[in-house]
Amino acid sequence: MDQLVLVLKSIRVTQWIKNVVVFAPIIFS
User: Fold this and answer.
1) Where do the H-state alpha helices sit in the chain?
2) Average pLDDT over residues 3-27
């Protein structure tokens, strides 16, 4: 069960990082 939670968290973090990579140039440009 804990393994599943870790996988879900890692997926969420990965998606969050993708969003940062996409939006950072827009915000800081």
Assistant:
1) 2-28
2) 95
